[in-house]
Amino acid sequence: MSFSYTAVLLSIVPVFGLVAIGVGLRGFKWVTPEADGSIMRMVVNCLYPCLIFENVLHNDALRNPANLAAAPVSGFLLMGGSIVAALYLGRLLGLTQGHGLRTFAFSSGINNYGYFALAVCAALFGENSPTIGLTLMHTVGGEAAMWTVGIFVLAGLSLREGWKKLLNGPVIALALGLFFNLTDLREHLPGFLMETIHRCGLCGLTIGIILIGCTIHEYLARPSALYHSRVTPIACLLRLGVFPLVFLVVAKCLPFTDDMKCVLIVQAAMPAGMFPIAIAKHYNGQPLTAAQVVIGTTTLGIVTIPLWIKFGMAWVF
């Protein structure tokens, strides 16, 4: 299985296009900062859970016990390990606590495992591909790592408090989707309900990515502040160099199914996730440091994402 560089590049162009639309909407003040909270709650608590439920419900690959375990476990271990590694490597490379080290580790260790990865998987493998459901399962492990290991590193929040964050709409939707999938009760769900869920799910991915663009607009107003002589290069080295190699070695060496290998290859190529900017604000981190990581890796990611996916497909398989 292989893709040309151009094919992979074209698969991510619409994603960055949606981000650009979000930046434009905020720039024209058609979507104001006051609306962000309500839109985010709509996406996280309604639209995104519908996307998860539909894709998990109809994903036969999740009936394979190997996939059912591998997707969330790999998500937790790879993301949790990346956060801890970024903490120690950042310190070795000269970053210090009190000057953005913890926020750097949190932001660099969390890749864009959700919206971006789903959009790329859909573009490369098809909207009905098993990789969509497996990616959603993978995100559960990633969410667990972010709200436990990640918050512990960022703010010293106890693991118990972090675990409480996992009882949310997406996780509940995933659990319900798995239940109806594995028990064959999905055949008894009414058509009008599934059509409603389908339409909400379509909105979830698009609106979520546009909102990312709205979120980063405020940082684009100060372009000189978005580059830091240590933070930006080190983040790009780790997130777009070291960590992708680790993901690909795991995909190649462990006995995953082919669909799961594809998920890990796409995850390997992803730049830093954008949600940590908001989390850094909430937990008294340094959101500018998070923005430097996100903007730097995302900008360079336009070039590196196709390269890593093309290399990964050729090497892993």
Automatic annotation (TrEMBL):
GO terms under cellular component: plasma membrane
Q: Which GO terms describe its biological process?
A: transmembrane transport
Keyword Transmembrane helix attached: yes
Q: How does the record classify its membrane topology?
A: Multi-pass membrane protein
**Which InterPro entries does this one have?**
Mem_transp_PIN-like (IPR004776), Na+/solute_symporter_sf (IPR038770)
As for family, the record states: Belongs to the auxin efflux carrier (TC 2.A.69) family.
User: By what name is this protein known?
Assistant: Transporter
Question: What is the protein's species of origin?
Answer: Ereboglobus luteus
